[in-house]
Write a structure and sequence with these properties.
The protein is of the alpha+beta class. The protein is built from 6 helices and 5 strands.
Length: 145
């Protein structure tokens, strides 16, 4: 009987604590062309954070977005860029002055990190037709080693 009581009251062995997986909320990127500021400095590297529901809702109240729905992406991208080169105050005016190819890159980057959860893109080599993945947040620009 004592054996049964002892077994019933024995505490299970303490397991080592499991470290929860950290959520990645910021993603570095390299623009294809780069933002040229007023002094002529080109800013290519930057950081984009994950969007919140607020980030997607607040621009809908912006008069510029109400007048032209295409402006939504400009306001939204400006809200989630935390750094562009040495510029830490990224506002819609900065995003407006991006080259179209850089804006398209950032729109795709936004979609990838917020909807797909990663920064990889499937590509095909034009020479050998081999399919492979590249990380858009990688250190260099596409096509450079």
């Amino acid at each position: 009987m004592r054996r049964t009581i002892a077994a019933a009251t024995a505490r299970p062995k303490a397991e080592s604590p499991v470290q929860p997986e950290r959520l990645r909320t910021e993603f570095a990127f390299e623009l294809p062309r780069g933002y040229v500021d007023e002094s002529g400095t080109v800013h290519r590297s930057g950081v984009m954070r994950l969007a919140t529901a607020r980030d997607e809702l607040i621009p809908l109240r912006d008069d510029r977005v109400r007048e032209n729905s295409a402006y939504l992406s400009v306001v939204l991208i400006a809200r989630v860029l935390t750094r562009l080169g040495t510029i830490e105050d990224v506002h819609p005016g900065v995003v407006e002055d991006l080259f179209a190819s850089d804006l398209a890159f950032l729109q795709d980057f936004y979609r990838r990190i917020n909807a797909e959860g990663h920064t990889r893109a499937a590509v095909t080599c034009p020479a050998c037709r081999e399919n492979f993945a590249v990380d858009l947040a990688g250190g260099g620009r596409l096509g450079e080693s």
